[in-house]
Amino acid sequence: MKTVVLLSGGLDSTTVLAHALYLGHTAHAVIVDYGQRHRRELRSADEIAWHYKVPTSHVAIDPMAFAGADSSQVGQMKSVPHGHYAAPSMKTTVVPNRNMILIALAGAVAESVGGDEVWYAAHAGDHPIYPDCRPEFALAAGLALFLGTVKGIRMEAPFVRLTKTDIARRAIQLHVPVELTWSCYDPQLDEHPVDDHPTDVIHCGLCGTCVERREAFREAGLTDPTEYAR
């Protein structure tokens, strides 16, 4: 089985990649630059792909596609909200139709490289805010991808009913290099950078993804190796 994994560089997608490899799949990573505010994640994605020695396809989307988006991550670049993902304010982190676009791109890559499946890392914690992370979307997008490709590429969201805490536990079980992953939507300059990254950034510790990440490790009873600004 050859699985094309949408790899953002975050904990979820990295654990999905590790899970595919654990199951014996041959993996190919797709890393997408869509002009995201949290561009630091792209470096993590590259480092993770190198760690697992998987081939990658880098795809860039013209950020002007989201120029009018009322989002803190693309387009108008509003202030990043702080607090838990359950808060209504987190809707400003939505990137319009992002996963539909990314799944379509990954499907094109899969068809081009002889892939059988596309995997993406939606999970239950995303359901309240992101419509393109819900089970019903995954089913519909999977059917569209299957019907829209000559080979009949299948789409899987293996963690769609798992919590972030479940994923943190799975990451540790699979020996995922958690320290390489990036989650933060509002990167902050590191006040104590190392020589090889003098202008490096660290997790803010306050945005929804940071709060969720901290909570997941705490609830799982695991050590969080992440450096937070606050």
How does this structure look, described?
The protein has 230 residues and is of the alpha/beta class. It has a single domain, classed as Rossmann fold (3-Layer(aba) Sandwich), CATH 3.40.50. Helix content is 34%, strand content 12%. It contains 6 helices and 7 strands, in the order E-H-E-H-E-H-E-H-E-H-E-E-H. The chain has helices at residues 11-22, 40-52, 98-113, 135-148, 164-173, 208-220; strands at residues 2-6, 26-33, 56-60, 117-119, 154-156, 188-189, 201-202. Strands 3-2-1-4-5 form a 5-stranded parallel β-sheet, sandwiched between helices. Strands 6-7 form a two-stranded antiparallel sheet. The longest helix has 16 residues, at 98-113. It starts with a strand and ends in a 10-residue tail after the last helix. 43% of the residues are buried.
Keywords for this structure?
two-stranded antiparallel ribbon; Rossmann fold; 6 helices; five-stranded parallel β-sheet
Explain briefly what this protein structure is:
The protein has 230 residues and is of the alpha/beta class.
Please tally the β strands and state the result: 7
Domain module tally: 1
* Rg: 17 Å
Q: How does the overall form come out from the CA principal axes?
A: globular
CATH domain topology: Rossmann fold
| Major beta sheet, strand line-up | 3-2-1-4-5
The run of helices and strands is EHEHEHEHEHEEH
Helix content: 25-40%
Task: Average the pLDDT over all residues and give the rounded result.
Answer: 92
Low-confidence stretches: none
> Which architecture does the CATH hierarchy give at level 2?
3-Layer(aba) Sandwich
What summary fits the major beta sheet? 5 strands, parallel
Given helix and strand content, the structural type is alpha/beta
